[in-house]
């Protein structure tokens, strides 16, 4: 996973939980991307970790199929080949936070929001 591209796109910023390899998790730091017109910067207050998904990438066995096979979009199934995902991996899909910068009408700084973003301190 290209963490530098995620940071440049504003998907991750500040302290970010990432899985570096089987059995190794780190809290890495990434710069904050510039805020695009009409966007928000959100400081994460809570982030949910899924034992059913994320732990299959972390554990000693690291059983997640994305680490062992290739996803074939046309067939819509996994096939033998290079893994579809590589370490480091930055996950996240459920979070709640507070707007700390806003360039969007109707969403003032201080607003509480929820949505789908990664386990990161800041997102846009």
Description:
The model has no long low-confidence stretch (mean pLDDT 92). The protein is elongated. With 124 residues, the chain is mainly beta. The longest helix has 6 residues, at 3-8. The protein has a 4-stranded antiparallel β-sheet with strand order 7-6-3-8, with no helix packed on it. It is built from 2 helices and 8 strands, in the order αβββαβββββ. It has a single domain (3-123), classed as Medium-chain alcohol dehydrogenases, catalytic domain (Quinone Oxidoreductase, Chain A, domain 1). The protein is 8% helix and 35% strand. The protein has helices at residues 3-8, 55-58; strands at residues 14-21, 24-30, 40-47, 70-72, 77-79, 95-102, 112-115, 122-123.
Percent helix: under 10%
CATH class: Alpha Beta
- How is the largest sheet built, in terms of strand order? 7-6-3-8
Spell out the helices and strands N to C: HEEEHEEEEE
CATH superfamily: Medium-chain alcohol dehydrogenases, catalytic domain
Number of strands: 8
**CATH fold-type name:** Quinone Oxidoreductase, Chain A, domain 1
Low-confidence stretches: none
The chain-level structural class is mainly beta
Mean pLDDT figure: 92
């Amino acid at each position: 996973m290209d963490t530098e591209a995620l940071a440049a796109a504003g998907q991750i910023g500040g302290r970010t939980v990432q899985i570096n390899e089987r059995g190794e998790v780190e809290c890495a730091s990434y710069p904050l991307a510039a805020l695009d017109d009409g966007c928000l910067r959100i400081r994460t207050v809570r982030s949910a970790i899924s034992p059913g998904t994320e732990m299959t990438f972390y554990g000693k066995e690291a059983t997640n199929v994305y680490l062992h096979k290739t996803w074939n979009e046309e067939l819509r199934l996994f096939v033998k080949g290079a893994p579809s995902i590589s370490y480091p991996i930055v996950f996240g899909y459920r979070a709640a936070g507070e707007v700390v910068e806003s360039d969007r009408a109707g969403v003032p700084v201080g607003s509480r929001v929820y949505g789908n973003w990664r386990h990161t301190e800041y997102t846009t």
